[in-house]
């Protein structure tokens, strides 16, 4: 039985209890973060925490985030994931337990904080090299996608549309623009330039997206932030998604049409290799810190 964190306690998952009056349950009134770990080392945890604090501020949830990083590390240890090649910590913070109203509680409320850790697996090299498929679907989400809220029904519906169509992923289209994936940021490559939607209220500022932009700069790969029209996808040379568990995920077919020559392209491969190198550097730095601390 896995160990989870709930409101200051570490306990077996089957003993965790959340009130039916929690505003997260009743109103999706909360935010979440998912942080990847590699052999017990987090990737960009500081960036995840910064986005978490930004979301809490936007929703006006009063929460002292000191100690949240320690929760992540302890959950990895409590669940024996220090040596797991890939694992993650899911953290969810809701406004807390209060009478159901369509406005914020008038009295102070303690937020509900829940977190768990689990292993996850990358696709096999064969599957990654073959690439993945996607379909375009309408973007049914609200207009503050930049806040990582727990209200994900439109994303779930989009993924179900993809599954029903026999595709691996969904690309959300709003006003003719291919904005992002159902749970990952989306990129298309035109010539030698990787293009992705600019940061706005209509996309989530992905942590992996930011890392990949830095990797591209290191490798001399041109990046452009602009709207990608859905009709342009037919002329793209490559396409890929970026996300915590997707890392750099190649997309070789959209709406039944091959992208480029229908194979994983060189820019996608270079950025994926750079992502692995970024992970390795994080692990090396963690090892150096542990050695300096005498651990």
Structure description:
The chain has 295 residues and is of the alpha+beta class. It has two domains: 3-119, 2-Layer Sandwich (D-amino Acid Aminotransferase, Chain A, domain 1); 125-280, Alpha-Beta Barrel (D-amino Acid Aminotransferase, Chain A, domain 2). Helix content is 30%, strand content 28%. The chain has seven helices and 15 strands. The chain has helices at 23-27, 45-59, 68-78, 125-130, 153-164, 207-219, 266-292, and strands at 3-6, 9-12, 30-38, 41-42, 87-94, 112-119, 132-138, 169-174, 177-181, 185-190, 193-196, 222-225, 238-243, 247-254, 257-258. Strands 7, 8, 9, 10, 11, 12, 13, 14 and 15 form a nine-stranded mixed beta sheet that branches. Helix 6 links the parallel strand 11 and strand 12 (222-225). The longest helix is centred in the last third of the chain and has 27 residues, at 266-292. The protein is globular and about 55 Å long. The two termini are 28 Å apart. The mean pLDDT is 97.
Name the features.
D-amino Acid Aminotransferase, Chain A, domain 2, 295 residues, D-amino Acid Aminotransferase, Chain A, domain 1, alpha+beta, single chain, 28% strand, nine-stranded mixed sheet
Order of helices and strands: EEHEEHHEEHEHEEEEHEEEEH
What helical percentage do the residues reach? 25-40%
Question: CATH superfamily of the largest domain, called what?
Answer: D-amino Acid Aminotransferase, subunit A, domain 2
**Largest sheet descriptor:** 9 strands, mixed
Q: How many separate domains make up the residues?
A: 2
Total number of β-strand segments?
Answer: 15
- Per DSSP, the total helix count is 7
CATH architecture of the largest domain: Alpha-Beta Barrel
Distance between the termini: 28 Å
State Rg: 20 Å
């Amino acid at each position: 039985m896995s160990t989870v964190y709930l409101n200051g306690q570490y306990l077996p998952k089957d003993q965790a209890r959340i009130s039916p009056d929690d505003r997260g349950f009743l109103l999706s009134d909360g935010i979440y973060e998912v942080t990847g770990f590699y052999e017990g080392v987090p990737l960009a945890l500081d960036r995840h925490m910064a986005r978490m604090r930004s979301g809490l501020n936007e929703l006006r949830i009063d929460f002292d985030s000191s100690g949240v990083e320690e929760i992540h590390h302890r959950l990895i240890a409590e669940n024996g994931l220090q040596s797991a090649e890939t694992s993650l910590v899911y953290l969810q913070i809701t406004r807390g337990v209060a009478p159901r109203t369509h406005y914020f509680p008038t009295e102070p409320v303690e937020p509900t904080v829940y977190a768990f850790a689990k292993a996850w697996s990358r696709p096999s090299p064969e599957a990654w090299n073959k690439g993945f498929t996607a379909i375009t679907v309408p973007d049914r989400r609200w207009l503050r996608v930049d806040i990582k809220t727990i209200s994900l029904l439109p994303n779930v519906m989009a993924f179900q549309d993809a599954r029903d169509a026999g595709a691996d992923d969904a690309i959300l289209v709003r006003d003719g623009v291919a904005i992002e994936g159902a749970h990952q940021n989306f990129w298309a490559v035109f010539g030698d330039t990787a293009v992705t939607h600019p940061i706005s209220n209509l996309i989530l500022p992905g942590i992996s997206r930011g890392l990949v932009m830095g990797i591209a700069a290191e490798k001399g790969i041109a990046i452009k932030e602009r709207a990608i029209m859905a009709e342009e996808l037919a002329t793209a040379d490559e396409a890929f998604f970026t996300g915590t568990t997707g890392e750099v995920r190649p997309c070789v077919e959209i709406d039944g049409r091959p992208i480029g020559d229908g194979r994983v392209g060189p820019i996608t491969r270079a950025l994926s290799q750079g992502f692995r190198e970024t992970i390795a550097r994080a692990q090396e730095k963690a090892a150096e810190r542990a050695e300096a601390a005498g651990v």
